[in-house]
Fold:
Amino acid sequence: RVGHNLGKIHDAEVASFELQYFEADGKTLIRTERLDIPGKTFRKEGLGKDVTDKFLAGLPGVQKEGCDGLITSARWVVHRMPEHTRTVCLEFFGNPKDGVPSIVEIKDYMFAEQKRSGTLLAGLEHLDDRYLRAVGYSTKSKRGGFPKMVLIGDIVGDDPDAVARAASEVVRLANGRAGEGFTAISPEARKKFWADRKKTAAISKHTNAFKINEDVVIPLPRMGEYTLGIERINIELSLRNKLKLTNELEAFFLRGSLPLGKAEEAADMPSPETVQERTDEALAIIRAARALWQQWMDGLDVTQPDTSRSFFEQLQDYTLRASWKTQIREPLAALFTGSVFAPVLAECKAIHKRVLKGRVWVALHMHAGDGNVHTNIPVNSDDYEMLQTAHEAVDRIMVLARSLDGVISGEHGIGITKLEYLSDEEIAPFAGYKAKVDPEGRFNKGKLLRGGALFGAPDQRQADLSQAYTPSFGLMGYESLIMQQSDIGAIADSVKNCLRCGKCKPVCSTHVPRANLLYSPRNKILATSLL
Structure:
């Protein structure tokens, strides 16, 4: 880097680099080259992060995901931490769409404050209500109820009075958006505020600890639309799960021969006619709930004449609820009373538990100042249908992000699983660069390429999920089918919890260089060390 601005690269009008090429001995200089890259091209304009441009004006090593060589050394710019810090915790109640604009207001205010007094917003993190429930968040507000989202941020500077004023103003901005704010000053209090943010892995505690984490970047002014889109996806997924429940309950009652308990007296056993009557009534309850929920699903966006609001809006603010407890379980409990019918209710509850375990939903936490949203979907790796539903949700999330002028990755890169969401036109500049600097495809062969012949490199086989040993939908789909059809019991239980981290070195195949060498991070580390 030539003429480093000692700040964010996209803030520089032009970022200049000198490239030096050496012989294999690493000492004999062959040639030099200078790259002058407009700072604004390092990310899509209007976004806080963006790592989707793999070409990046031909800058070697940066955002190339290991496809043009190995980084062997680096130099860092370290900034001194300001002397004073206050941590704010902002709780927002009501519709998230109303609270999300506060992120833009806070960022704009702190940007201006940085110019005035040097006070900085050092971090601003967001957790939605699903994350808050997963981490066991304790509401700080006395108003009652549970927040729909929480923002946690550090305000730092060398002037303690300026830091205090900025923290107070940030709280005031939250108050204007139906939010309440709290400020921590001491290190101990600040640590408590940040503790919940460190527990984000708890989002997958109801599954077998596997979650699909798709990071996208959304323009901050459109973040409200994104959260609204995710809420709509969640409501659809919830209704789909509820409808599946009604189908399985219906199948249970249609099978006949309901499981009955014992009666103290033979005369207390219900007659076949009575059992059939109860069965018919149960089916009527289930079908009525299904018809209502299906009506909501089919007309989510239709404005209802009696309320002048759509079903989606009413489900979002809980005016309407698709409730297993009140609409099915309680009526069935009133119908099947007594110890004789206890096994029937027990089986209904077991069906509900099994179906609920396969419910897919989306949770959000974000680096709010950058608009970088981690969109997480907890799944069970032994549930094939759940994985496919999650994959469908990811497709919708990517379409939603791009429709809002966002990008599909701000931190995680493209890898293998996100390549399908980039167009050939977006990949082409990188493919040309790859053919020039690594024509034999020695580094990450085929990675970030789609159809080698398209880019004049027919010898470079594209890297896709069919060849990858990675926690991907393809592999886990096969695993889940095997486990569902298998009676190997304990072995299946141990395998289904595998996250392919490679830490079980004596037995984990991801740690051994094999045909999958190109795809396992641990294999890459091992192979690189052998060089």
Summary: The CA atoms of residues 511 and 522 lie 6 Å apart. Residues 214-413 form one domain.
